[in-house]
Design a protein that fits this description.
The chain has 410 residues and is α/β, with parallel strands linked by helices. Helices cover 38% and strands 20% of the residues. Strands 14-13-12-11-7-10-9-8-15 form a 9-stranded mixed beta sheet. A 6-stranded parallel beta sheet has the order 3-2-1-4-5-6, sandwiched between helices. The mean pLDDT is 94. Bound molecules: nicotinamide-adenine-dinucleotide.
């Protein structure tokens, strides 16, 4: 059980990911854990509201109030915090509105569409004195936390480089035995998603890489749209980028979504003493560490050893009981508990209730957006860019159309 009163939460957005947030809350409750209670929900789409309301009613025994607009939900006096799970182009305005209404705010990744939009959130959060946190989930998966611990322990020796591939068909593949994950059309519209690989997917990679390797210093990137869509607002089909870190470490990512009938996603982290491999993108899964003498331990073994070695208080903070699925090998995107969503909600509720800092405060989430924007700025400029130039707003040409679309034109 949580050692604090459940936070009375309003869920804003009942689409694919909003449904997964609601399921994570219901699954945590089934596991005897109640960091939040969803007392109200909101979506402009009545059918989506009804689907989430029915799930919560059946699984938690409590029917949430339903609202058709964010304003109506923010006026609902039962709500003391909100969970924003809207298309990215709506994030910053909704977060600002919720802070003005006196709410704590959890917001899906990416924090906002541009660095300027993130700046407004960071400033407003500081002024309001409320908790704002990102529900970025990938770093919270046990495999990714275990990988961070191996790096911090120096188990791989001096780190040389990382290579990441994420090649998928244009539509998300449905794996045997899994429910389909919805992929809404706005993911492929730049003025709603920022970019598909550079932002919608890239936000995860940006957060993970700075979580593992520290601050990125400069970025070079190429992006291509191969003309499969006739829309001038269409996102890129291919992104390839190099991150140079302040430590001198260099990593390379290649993301593409053009081929039907073929997919591959993997990582290689090459260290002086060992090579770490992963046969999945979103989590260190189905992989191994191979040392120079040829000895090898699987990722399953190493993740289990890391979990077993965690002190009880660290485990409660990083992976609270009921907020993820114990004993499961690897996370599954269609299972919100094992996918890290419950952990993010739990961390936010604890921060709002007890005054501790959330794991991903807005300035941290802003850096992830800035790294995504740095890829877009570098691709546009055809030359490497410094993170500092993007964070300071000195470089913003690639974000101009996005800022215009969300009402932030100069
Ligand atoms: N962490 C992850 O792994 C992950 C995965 C997918 C999506 N996401 C993020 O979650 C967020 C939502 O994505 P999604 O896939 O759920 O999108 P979606 O399109 O499936 O859902 C968005 C919902 O918002 C509703 N909506 C739109 N405008 C609204 C408004 N003005 N007021 C109220 N409701 C409104 C829509 O009707 C829809 O139901 C995005 O920020 C996305 O990047 C995160």
């Amino acid at each position: 059980m949580s050692d604090f009163e459940p936070l009375r939460l309003g869920l804003i957005g009942c689409g694919g990911m909003g449904l997964r947030h609601a399921r994570a809350v219901a699954d945590m409750r089934t596991a005897g854990h109640r960091p939040v209670e969803i007392v109200a929900i909101c979506d402009t789409d009545e059918g989506r509201r009804a689907r989430v309301a029915a799930l919560l009613s059946e699984r938690t025994g409590r029917e949430p109030a339903q609202h058709a607009s964010t304003g109506a939900l923010l006026d609902d006096r039962r709500v003391e915090a909100v969970d924003v799970v809207l298309p990215t182009s709506l994030h910053h305005a909704t977060v600002l509105e919720a802070l003005s209404a006196g709410m704590h705010v959890l917001v899906e990744k990416p924090l906002a569409l541009t660095v300027s939009a993130c700046d407004l959130i960071v400033e407003a959060a500081a002024r309001a004195g409320k908790v704002v946190a990102s529900s970025e989930n990938y770093r919270r998966l046990p495999g990714n936390r275990a990988l961070a611990a191996l790096i911090a322990d120096g188990a791989l020796g001096r780190l040389d480089t990382m290579f990441v591939r994420n090649f998928a068909p244009p539509e998300p593949p449905v794996k045997r035995g899994e429910a389909p994950v919805e992929s809404p059309g706005w993911y492929r519209a730049r003025t709603h998603a920022g970019g598909y690989h550079a932002m919608e997917m890239g936000a995860h990679e940006a957060d993970l890489q700075e979580f593992w390797f520290g601050a990125v210093d400069s970025v070079s990137a190429e992006m291509r749209a191969f003309g499969r869509s006739s829309s001038p607002d269409a996102t890129e089909d291919l992104l390839t980028a190099t991150f140079r870190f302040e430590s001198g470490f260099v990593s390379n990512i290649s993301f593409a979504s053009t081929m039907r009938g073929f997919e591959i996603a993997d990582r290689l982290l090459i260290g002086e003493a060992a090579v770490l491999s992963s046969a999945a993108w979103h989590e260190w899964q189905n992989g191994a560490v191979t040392w120079a003498d040829g000895s090898r331990r699987s990722s399953d073994e190493l993740v289990a050893a890391w979990l077993a070695g965690l002190a009880p208080d660290a485990r409660e903070r990083l992976l609270p009981d009921g907020a993820w699925t114990r004993g499961r090998d690897g996370s599954v995107a269609t299972d919100p508990l094992s996918y890290g969503v419950g952990v993010a909600i739990h961390d936010f509720a604890r921060a709002a209730r007890t005054g501790t800092a959330p794991e991903i405060p807005p300035d941290r989430a802003r850096r992830a957006v800035a790294l995504c924007c740095a890829m877009m700025e570098a691709a546009r400029a055809g030359a490497p860019v410094r993170m500092e130039q993007v964070l300071s707003g000195e470089l913003c040409a690639a974000q101009a159309a996005l800022n215009h679309a969300i009402g932030l034109s100069a």
